[in-house]
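Retry 2 of 3 after timeout on previous attempt. Resubmitting structure tokens to design endpoint.
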């Protein structure tokens, strides 16, 4: 059994055009830590677009990879009490990962909005959310 402790982030993956990055003031291929207001702007931008969700965060990604190799694993960290938390937990269960994630109503689940341009370049915008608590 391998036990991971880390910062769970739900990846919100959105396909965009090059022009969209300019309109949003995002430099292509970069990673930025963002605040609540900026996260809300990016979520509003993504409404009506094709969006996919994935479990993210360095420790969770490692634990998920180990689970795919048949290793018994569990992850611990902190989520918000929101829809993203439910999506994250459901996906972990599908992937065979044990879940010892704590929930807090004090903030949203940490999230990364990943904007992907047609050439597959990723621009990542991370809101730490509940991971800051």
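Retry 2 succeeded. Sequence:
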């Amino acid at each position: 059994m391998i036990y991971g402790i880390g910062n769970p982030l739900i990846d919100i993956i959105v396909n965009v055009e090059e022009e969209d990055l300019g309109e949003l003031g995002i430099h292509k291929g970069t990673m930025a830590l963002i605040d609540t207001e900026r996260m809300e702007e990016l979520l509003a931008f993504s409404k009506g677009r094709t969006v996919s969700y994935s479990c993210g965060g360095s420790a969770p990604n490692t634990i998920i990879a180990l689970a795919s190799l048949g290793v018994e694993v569990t992850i611990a960290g902190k989520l918000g009490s929101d829809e993203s938390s439910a999506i994250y937990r459901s996906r972990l269960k599908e992937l065979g990962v044990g879940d010892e994630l704590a929930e807090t109503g004090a903030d949203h689940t940490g999230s990364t909005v990943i904007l992907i341009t047609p050439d597959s370049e990723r621009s990542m915008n991370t809101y730490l959310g509940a991971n800051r608590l």
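Attempt log closed. The CA atoms of residues 49 and 120 lie 17 Å apart.
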